[in-house]
Write a structure and sequence with these properties.
single chain, alpha/beta, 2 domains, 4-stranded mixed beta sheet, 9 helices, globular, DNA endonuclease activity, metal-binding
């Protein structure tokens, strides 16, 4: 299994990235802020795009280190990667299946099966661990509804119907999300999903977590030789990493949502970590973003046992494991793609 390397997050604005030997140098107004070796990095994520030297981008491209540029509030701008090292036969198989909606549905339903299964697991866990703080009857009712939807998802071979079933599951799950927030409820609440821009503290954190997870998943797919921009559930759209969005569906609740809930319920992030713009958009402060990223890196280092492979690995390697399994399925080594079904 691939070794989990570090990600360098550059959160301070107006920082220019340069190369010095085998090191990345952080410069601001010609002042050197830091110097880090590149050999133990797998990616660099920079907030508030100022720039990176061609020498650094060339070095990173040659050594399979991605450079991602985001706005200060976490919106994706660009990703710099090297030449594709994917197996051409593997990618041609991916493109053929993606062009066929029936074949795409047979792959996509497993992404959605994993997503709904893991959401159901989260709901059931809440009923066991916090029965006095939630509406257990409502949680059980929606859990049963998700079980019924999984039966239909498993048999579905139509993309549009599959999207409809996924939408029904999302609506049911979102009805309970606010109850999963156990602390700081006056300042952290979830009524509905809002993005571009997020309009409350919780949606701001969810959007940020999804951006980070999508980037990790895209990098994992490219590493095993797949094209992160050609998906099965999410169809082609210029600039959208559709396959990364497909694969991350399984991890969206079990990793990203649980992570956000833990930051709120453990009071790692509080109401003073946000500010509102004139248009109503809610953003995290620089200090909050640093706390968020530090906790994200720590979570990625936590050890788990992969539910299908049975191997011990870091949480941060879950996207890589799923990318590897998808590649094996496309090569014909597996009868179907095994989704990440958390236990």
């Amino acid at each position: 299994m691939k070794k989990l390397l570090n990600t360098l997050y550059v959160t301070q604005p107006d920082v220019y990235l340069a190369l010095d030997g085998g090191n990345v140098v952080l410069l601001k107004d010609e002042e050197r802020l830091g110097r880090l070796p590149l050999h133990n990095l797998e990616s660099i994520i920079s907030f508030g795009y100022t720039g990176a030297s061609p020498a650094l981008m060339g070095y990173c491209a040659d050594h399979n280190i991605s450079i991602v540029f985001l706005t200060m509030n976490g919106r994706f701008l660009a990703r710099v990667v090297g030449e594709s090292r994917g197996n051409v036969v593997l990618r041609k198989k991916q493109y053929r299946l993606s062009d066929n909606e029936n074949s795409s549905a047979k792959v996509a339903r497993n992404f959605i099966m994993g997503k709904v299964y893991n959401q159901k697991w989260m709901i059931e866990r809440m009923t066991r661990e916090h029965p006095l703080r939630i509406d257990v009857e409502q949680f059980k009712k929606i859990s049963q509804h998700l079980s019924a939807l999984m039966v239909d998802i498993h048999a579905c071979e139509d993309l549009e119907r599959l999207r409809g079933l996924e939408g029904q599951a999302a609506i049911s799950y979102n009805r309970l999300f606010n109850q999963m927030i156990l602390q700081q409820k006056e300042d952290f609440y979830f009524h509905h999903r809002s993005r571009r821009p997020p309009m409350d503290n919780v949606n701001t954190m969810l959007s940020f977590a999804y951006t980070l997870l999508a980037n990790d998943t895209a990098a994992a797919l490219e590493t095993v030789g797949l094209d992160a921009y050609v998906g099965f559930l999410h169809r082609d759209r210029p600039g959208r990493a559709s396959l990364a969005l497909d694969v991350m569906e399984e991890l969206r609740g079990i990793f990203a949502d649980r992570f956000v809930l833990s930051l709120i319920n453990r009071r790692v992030i509080g109401p003073l970590d946000f500010y509102k713009k004139e248009n109503g958009a809610v953003l995290m402060t620089d200090e909050a973003r640093k706390k968020f990223l530090e906790a994200w890196q720590n979570r990625k280092q936590e050890k788990i046992t992969h539910p299908f492979l049975g191997e011990r690995m870091s949480w941060g390697l879950a996207p890589h494991a799923q990318a590897l399994l998808l590649a094996r399925y496309l090569r014909g080594d597996l009868d179907q793609y095994p989704p990440f079904l958390w236990k």
